[in-house]
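User: Predict the complex with uracil.
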Amino acid sequence: MVIPSLIEHKRDGRPLAPDQWAELIRAYAAGAVPDYQMSALLMAVYFRGLEPAELAALTDAMIDTGDRLRFDGLPIPVADKHSTGGVGDKVSLLLAPMVASCGVAVPMMSGRGLGHTGGTLDKLESIPGFRTQLSLREAREQVERLGCAMLGQTPEIAPADKRLYALRDVTATVESIPLIASSIMSKKLAEGLNGLVLDVKTGSGAFLTDTARALELARTMIGLGEARGCPTVALLTAMDRPLGRACGNALEVEEAIEGLRGGGPADLMEVTYALAAEMLVLVRAARDLADARRRLEEAVASGRALETFARIIEAQGGNPKVVEDPGVLPQAQAVEVYRADRGGVVQAVEPRRIGRAIVALGGGRMAVEDGVDPTVGFVITVKPGDPVRAGEPIASVFARDSAGVALGMRALGEAVAIGDSGYLTPLVSHRITVRGVELLAEHA
Ligand code: URA
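Assistant: Here is the predicted structure with uracil placed in the model:
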């Protein structure tokens, strides 16, 4: 295989053959292709895109570099959810135990924070003792026993994606629809699922900010899933403001537990129920979305979902008392209230600004090897369209020290805009299936 001629081919807008993709990815995973050549090829893909046959070959090749989870003989269906990433998005923490409590197995394989977006693994690891690095064997056994495991991408699953992803992160080639789709779907399709629900974020805080591109990403991933025997549905959800109130690892765990206890902010619960209901319907654990919603609400109201979360935490080495007492979570040393600087209507709560401030406070990573401070972040109690009075408390900063508080207060000043009018865009705007796109709510 002559790599420079493959790069040249792709650079000039010509497709590579499926077996060229297969060979290339195999060679890259084996360490036989240097990162500088793969970077050049990724940039060519970024500009030229991939034809459907190339995308299929790339995805299959990435899956084939690793192992697959298998649940042969499990008497219940297996489903998962994946979000394209946002700020304040703690949906997985609630959804996995809720869906598992309704008789569907959930091998929830998640990621760490990426750029300005938070990651489920970092959130879970703020629970003292919680271990996310399970082997495939441990994950399978726990799913068989408890109906759910919450783990990181194991070295056995799509190892080519792990390397390619790290390379894309440092070569400005993340925001490419075929590269995102193949990356996400190679991991999800290796999980042995009977159904997959995608939460495709749209708006200023999403990786793909505009709706048309988010819809194209959703359709691309659905095409890959369905063609490989995994029924796949996507919802487009708003990421032009943070989801829920809490943004920051331990703060988000606390809010997720509040949701599992029957409280929780309305927007967080709405997105969680919408995605979880799709999962139950997709694997036929509910007749329709209304039936699924009833079952999920009952799992929360009866305390079963919270109990399941406690069992998962205990099985993975965490302190299950956290579900009764959020005081078990590490606490920020410095907390300060932020007040509205004028009266009026909230125009924006800019998620990217909030996400970047969490990273700057130590709650996210600047480099792959960095640790994260689980205690820092924000609780923001207003949304665009909310009326506020001058001086009204509308947020809190959680930081390590007074310098962090000052940084957080400045970030809130930039992120929260108050004017004379403002409005909230629809939270769940589109439902995408293999049959097409359903508009659920119009933008104002
Ligand atoms: N998440 C992934 O796993 N891969 C991407 O490319 C983007 C988000």
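The pocket of uracil is lined by residues 84-85, 111, 165, 174, 179-180, 183-184 (CB under 6 Å).
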